[in-house]
């Protein structure tokens, strides 16, 4: 048996390559699918099967892209009508060399969600592992809110039945291979752990300690954010996205060309870290640090206007292309050739963002002229925050600007200053003149031993 996990950073997506005796299957492939070809060639295997555990909502699936290259068949759950591929049902089996893959219908996260058990008949007739998609993660279970608040109870009950009646009875030694890891938006608190087992989850996964009523109530109370790009991903993954065949070519742009595109409302993303962005940046540019693109680009970028990248040395362009292509952004256009230094050396106008340490913030707390904005997720803010701060999640900030006073000094904080830099750039783009980013933010505040508060009195989103 040959097994390899393929991780996509930022969205914490996990896909899997399984093979035996020269035949292979790929589960939940990403759109830049060259990595699966590399694995197949390296192991002298032919990819004959592609499985989707569900209609993914946080990235564009690569099944059609991979099928175009290798000629494999695509299979997914029968709960919804896909415009491509083949439906599978409970009990369907697939022989891959010595491996037997069997379909288990596990609705709850979505109606058509499936899990796939794996047996290696060369070793045993017992189930060796299960690919659980977004049903069961390390330390967490899948979100049940994608069909709206009115369907959360129904979906939560379905997920409970899927997990407790179908997955857990497979046996404590069965390895669980989920579709996401820590940091994914597809679960509330997924543990930072590559693989897990059914037995380990029964012992350590808090939500699995509940009876059915407690489980359902806990899922109903979950408050998770749904970025606007989910709608585009769901459409892509139902109808099948456009083929890209290869990663897009990004044009190296002169300073003059960037100015012209900005005048025509191009979307300009500065992917440098907050410290560099604070020191100087092109006016009306959004700052999302490079590794934050997969998690946050979908909140702010549309799929129509061209996307322009600003960096220092442009050494990460290939990585950026992959991040945005996985999110379905086929409108990536180009980057400032030579990086940001070309802009300021060419006498281009630029802005800066004031930065504070937590030691600068402390003596200013309580001033009527200061408005402390915490842009972390609401649940994180409720657990602990700086007393007097106001909470609006960064993804919702653009729609809640009416709650942020323009006549005050807006000081932005988050976990460490990275999301705060996104928030500061949004405020600047919308006319806020007096904005400061607290570098280190909550992590540094606690490290310094300064007091923290709890509760939700000042959540304003």
TrEMBL record:
Gene3D superfamilies, sorted: Rhodanese-like domain, Ribonuclease Z/Hydroxyacylglutathione hydrolase-like
Domain of life: Archaea
Ranges for domain Rhodanese: 262-352, 366-454
InterPro entries per the UniProt record, alphabetical: Metallo-B-lactamas, Mito_Persulfide_Diox, POD-like_MBL-fold, Rhodanese-like_dom, Rhodanese-like_dom_sf, RibonucZ/Hydroxyglut_hydro
UniProt cross-references to Pfam families, sorted A to Z: Lactamase_B (PF00753), Rhodanese (PF00581)
Organism: Methanobacterium spitsbergense
A biological-process GO annotation: hydrogen sulfide metabolic process
Protein name: MBL fold metallo-hydrolase
Keywords (A to Z) from UniProt: Metal-binding
Recorded GO MF terms: metal ion binding; sulfur dioxygenase activity
